[in-house]
Amino acid sequence: MARKETAAEAANPGRLKQIALTFQMTRKADPKIGLILAGVFIITFGVLLGVGFAISHPIYLGILGILLAFLATAIVFGRRAERAAFGQMEGQPGAAAAVLDNVGRGWTTTPAVAMNRSQDVVHRAVGKAGIVLVAEGNPNRVKSLLAAEKKKMNRIVADVPVHDVIVGNGEGQVELKKLRTTMLKFPRVLTGPQVTATNDRLRALGDLMSNMPLPKGPMPKGMRMPRGGPKTR
Fold first, then answer.
1. Which of 74, 83, 103, 78 is nearest to 29 (CA)?
2. CA 197 to CA 30: how far, in whole Å?
3. Which stretches does UniProt call biased (Low complexity) (predicted)?
4. 189: part of which helix (H) or strand (E)?
5. Which of 109, 112, 115, 210 fits a disulfide with 100 by CB distance 3.0 to 4.6 angstroms?
């Protein structure tokens, strides 16, 4: 029992520290966050307390007001913190992959299944909606990457629907902050076993690095074959 209490006490400072760090990060992008949260708390509590005086139950409505004020403040803080986080991530390489990792249970994300020299990249997510290819980078360049990857998916798993998304702020693109919502809106057409089977088939492809072609031409001088390689008979 003592160990559990000690662990709980140690966890609380960690949570408080995390909240404080999140608040500091959010305040950099949203300087008025403190005033906004204070306003939400005061207004919510004040309205309920006023209703309590009006119906002659200020204590009950006051207690309820405090609870609801904390809840409303937490909701507003969470949304604005999320918005600030997306604002800092937007335009950063790999931002879409970070969002895909947090879509939810039932999704398997493989980052950078395709990439070009300009660092445009395509990520792959597999779930009950099928395969979703998410591209980030120059919209004109990633279209060819998406087309090639989609063609490969249709050849390997022809019975699984393949969706494609380009992350960006232009026409026909999906904003980074709306990527998770977009993923969850795709219709679910696969069962759990079908998702597992699809992941197994795609896993056999390997990642981008393992699929890179070997350089052609004569072997450079001084290079030796690795041990365990093929032997001449």
1. 83
2. 45
3. 219-233
4. none
5. 109
Q: How far is CA 48 from CA 38, 55, 75, 77, 146, in A?
A: 16, 11, 18, 20, 53
Contact indicator for 175, 87 with CB cutoff of 8 Å: no
Q: Which of 167, 172, 93, 169 is nearest to 132 (CA)?
A: 167
What amino acid is encoded at 159 in this protein?
Answer: D
pTM > 0.85: yes or no: no
Task: For residue 193, give both structure tokens.
Answer: 């076993």
Closest to 202 measured CA to CA, from 153, 135, 165: 153
pLDDT of residue 141: 87
pLDDT at 91: 61
Give the number of other CB atoms < 10 A from CB of residue 136.
26
Spatial distance between the Cα atoms of 52 and 65, rounded to a whole number of angstroms: 9
Chunked mean pLDDT (size 10), the chain, 233 residues? 48 71 78 91 94 91 94 90 70 76 86 87 93 90 90 88 90 86 92 92 64 42 41 41
- Return the CA Rg of the chain: 26
CB 131 within 8 A of CB 109: no
Tokens of 181: 């919502």
**What pLDDT is recorded for position 220?**
42
Longest dimension (CA), the chain: 99
